[in-house]
């Protein structure tokens, strides 16, 4: 099984998502979404080409849409490095990275 790692920025993004979910939906839902997100990270580690190229975010980066978020990552020899997790609305405001939604 391949591995995934998170940059400090991605880890901060995941924590912010958890805290927002906790404040908005409660502990059970926040924990369920975090677990769902980590399953998605493992899916990407096992299938690194599942995401589309996202050179507009960072050279060599890939992106994968999950629920209302976009996961940006780099393919590594032993899996993937998660470099950021962004809400799709934030991407539209930035105008740089396009979403298909």
UniProtKB/TrEMBL annotation:
It holds the Pfam family ParE_toxin. Keywords: Toxin-antitoxin system. Gene3D superfamilies: RelE-like. PANTHER family: TOXIN PARE1, TOXIN PARE1-RELATED. Belongs to the RelE toxin family. This is Toxin. It comes from Methylocapsa palsarum.
